[in-house]
Design brief:
Blueprint: E1 3-8, H1 15-21, E2 24-26, E3 29-32, E4 35-38, H2 45-53, E5 58-60, H3 65-76, E6 81-85, H4 94-102, E7 109-111, H5 118-133, H6 138-147, E8 152-157, H7 162-166, H8 172-180, E9 184-189, E10 194-200, H9 203-221, E11 230-236, H10 240-253, E12 259-263, H11 266-272, E13 277-283
Helix pairs in contact: 5-6
Pfam family, one: DegV
Organism: Enterocloster bolteae 90A9
Keywords: Lipid-binding
């Protein structure tokens, strides 16, 4: 059985990288000052954050049903099934839309609702690819990925409260107070939504909070304190040097464990702005170890 694995661009996988990895990526649309752009097609990360800094009006959107179905139908011309892994259903309505659209494909399209985004969503796509190569059906892949949906965590700290305020994630009063006190909030994604986790006064303290939370998850939630059976990941928004330094710290804490680093998807970046850092972990599937 030939299966096409598709993620949306919230996974952080670029079109060129997708070709190298043997998967497919559906680009997510953005509205910037009333004009539609597609992540990784006609909108780079550098251009996105430059427009953001200029004060452009930026909103996110889910892909149109037409765009989604056109990609599926093109892939089904030479594949038996499509496994589609959209961003978390708690962060966008695009997953629910895809689930409804898939009902017309008589099982040939399996939509995975495993509540991942960014580097953890990327890993789900790679796991799906590897399971397909081992002969798993689309239905089996969907069932496995959804059964392990909570086997990942992301912790994010932001450099400014400006964009959380702009997106309505916090009140103007809270943003003003936080800016005055130089608060660096730490947010978390553990399935479903982006939630508040802790508050820090400095970026250094925020990093410590994130790394402590990561260590706690590895020991308590994943029962893997040395990360021997867990993928470790770093992500950022326009913070390559800081991300590199954080990556080195993680490597020192978990010697010999590979650490993957990449920019956060623009759907997250839209709400948190440039200068953000994130650490993440995803449990390896036993079937692939």
């Amino acid at each position: 059985m030939k299966i096409a694995i598709v993620a949306d661009s919230n996974s952080g996988v670029t079109q060129d990288e997708a070709k190298e990895l043997g998967i497919y990526v559906l680009p997510m649309p953005f509205m910037i000052d009333g004009q539609v752009f597609y992540e990784g097609i006609d909108l780079s990360h550098e251009e996105f954050y430059a427009r953001m800094e200029e004060g452009a009006e930026i909103t996110t959107s889910q892909p149109s049903p037409k765009d989604v179905m056109e990609q599926w139908e093109q892939l089904l011309e030479d594949h038996d099934q499509v496994v589609y892994i959209p961003m978390s259903s708690g962060l966008s309505g695009s997953c629910q839309t895809a689930l409804m659209l898939a009902e017309d494909y008589e099982g040939r399209v399996q939509v995975v609702n495993n509540q991942r985004i960014s580097v953890t969503q990327r890993q789900s796509a790679l796991d799906a690819r590897d399971l397909a190569e081992r002969g798993w059906s689309g239905e089996q892949i969907k069932e496995k990925l959804e059964a392990t949906r909570f086997d990942s965590s992301i912790y994010i700290t932001v450099d400014t409260l400006k964009y959380l305020k702009k997106g309505g994630r916090i009140t103007p009063a809270a943003a003003a107070l936080g800016t005055l006190l130089k608060i660096k909030p730490v947010l978390t994604i553990q399935g479903e939504k982006l939630d508040a986790f802790a508050k820090a006064r400095t970026m250094k303290q925020a990093k410590t909070i994130m790394l402590t939370a990561l260590a706690h998850d590895l020991e308590e939630r994943l029962a893997d304190p040395k990360a021997e059976h867990t993928y470790l990941q770093i992500a950022h928004t326009c913070s390559e040097q800081a991300a590199h330094e954080l990556e080195e710290t993680v490597r020192e804490l978990y010697p010999g464990v590979p650490v993957f680093g990449a920019p956060l998807s623009l759907s997250i970046g839209c709400h948190i702005g440039p200068g953000a850092l994130a650490v993440a972990c995803t449990r390896k599937l036993k079937e692939l170890e």
